[in-house]
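Minutes, project huddle
Topic: does the predicted pose make sense with flavin mononucleotide bound?
PN asked that the exact inputs be recorded in the minutes so nobody has to dig through chat later. Recorded below.
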Amino acid sequence: MIELRLAPMAAVTNVPFRLVARECGAGRLTSEEIDARGFLEGSARTREFASFLPEEHPIALQLLGADPDVLAEAARRLEATGADAIDLNMGCPVAKIVAKGQGSALMRDPLGAAVVFRTMRKAIGVGFTIKIRGGWDDRTVNAVEIARIAEGEGVDAITVHPRTRSQQYNGTAPWDIIASVVDAVTIPVIGNGDVRSFADARAMVAATRCAAVMIGRGALGAPWVFRAAEVAREERARIIRRHAELIDAYLPPRTALLQLKKHLAWYAHGFPHAARLREELFRAPEPAAVLDVFWRAW
Ligand SMILES: Cc1cc2nc3c(=O)[nH]c(=O)nc-3n(C[C@H](O)[C@H](O)[C@H](O)COP(=O)(O)O)c2cc1C
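Predicted holo structure (tokens), as shared on screen:
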């Protein structure tokens, strides 16, 4: 059995989507990125990102930051909330994030990254994992170097999304970089990038010998990707209804309306007249109307 994990995705992998993924068979879950400083300052948004339900275990909470002490203190407090692991974001490519030395910018500074690893490792007793990219750009592909440093500093597992920061989400993910990291360390390596089906996951394991596979965009509008078998149309409809109920139950009303629209638009991918349907979904004023538009097109 291959463990399939749901990738962290900002503004997507909240409680309802994570629960749906788990119910479809996803392994360890990860929160969306949580700004370490914002969390310590008590921002309501970051607190919401850090919340999870008992049925989500095992779950990792992912931190975004650059200052080792801030990251360590945030990790300590997140550990106290009952998280099973703390994950460090070393992949975010967004300009205003990397300008602060955070996300994928951490890959440019291996010595700085080593200090972050050491400080965070000392702060927590639960699992400590990192999520890296191949490197900053094609002249500085250093995933193996970062992975070796991380292993030496006591990091428990490494997820590799092998595109460089410069590649953002473009082109194909070079899985051979995942294989090089697998060869270089003894801790578990989780492969990520362009997996859209169970067959893709199997191919990634065969090509890289990674310990588990993480799926991001392939789960949008298709959380049944975590099931090994084909999922029938009625079962898909049931999963979508369940997702809509969870959005209603667990998100504040304004967030819930936007999330419902976003996810139903993903579920509608490939429908006839999908572009027009999308517009209709986003124009609908309240949840019942959004659902009505969707189910009429189903
Ligand atoms: C909308 C979106 C939001 C993302 N947010 C995060 C994030 O918060 N933390 C993170 O580590 N990666 C984030 N990622 C990257 C994914 O976790 C994953 O590494 C990437 O999408 C490649 O995997 P895929 O080809 O399966 O989508 C995000 C990706 C997308 C598309």
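Observations noted during the meeting:
- The radius of gyration is 19 Å.
- The mean pLDDT is 97.
No decisions taken; revisit at the next huddle.
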